[in-house]
Amino acid sequence: MNERTGIIVWVSDTKAARGLEKYGSLYYISRRMRYAVLYVDTRRYEDVVANLMRLPYVKRVEKSLRGEIRTEYNTNVPDKTRFYTY
Fold first, then answer.
1. Could you write out the DSSP letters of every residue in 10-35?
2. Of 3.30.70.80, 2.30.30.240, 3.30.365.10, 3.40.309.10, which CATH number belongs to 4-67?
3. What is the pLDDT of residue 54?
4. Which residues of 23-39 are buried (b: 16+ CB within 10 A; e: fewer)?
5. pTM of the entire predicted model
6. What pLDDT is stored for residue 39 in this prediction?
7. Is 36 helix (H, G, I), strand (E, B) or coil?
8. Please, is 68 exposed, middle or buried when counting C-beta atoms within 10 Å of its C-beta (0-12, 13-18, 19+)?
9. What confidence score (pLDDT) does residue 86 get?
10. Residue 45: burial class (beta carbons within 10 Å; 0-12, 13-18, 19+)
């Protein structure tokens, strides 16, 4: 399975944002905030970003930081429920 990278594409026209499907997997389009979430192969990331910036309805392109968020949690936190019992 290929490694994927998420891209946040800020657009001026959400109807035109449906055309982003040809650049990768279009995951979500927010009509209210006017952005789209797109997943592409990591190897093609730089080329896709360069092509997206050429589109007239694209305002800004950002890399998604979802892959960098820590998902393993530490359970060494002391239990505070004993302080709140009567």
1. EES-TTGGGGGGGTSEEEEEETTTTE
2. 3.30.70.80
3. 96
4. bbebeebeeeebbbbbb
5. 0.78
6. 96
7. strand
8. exposed
9. 61
10. middle
What is the domain partition of the chain in residue ranges?
4-67
Q: Tell me the two tokens of residue 24.
A: 């990768």
Cβ neighbors of 22 (< 8 A, separation 6 or more) are: none
- 1-52: pLDDT as tens digits: 689 999 999 999 999 999 999 999 999 999 999 999 999 999 999 999 999 9
Q: Token pair of 36, please?
A: 């789209």
Q: Which amino acid is at 61?
A: V
User: Which amino acid is present at 11?
Assistant: V
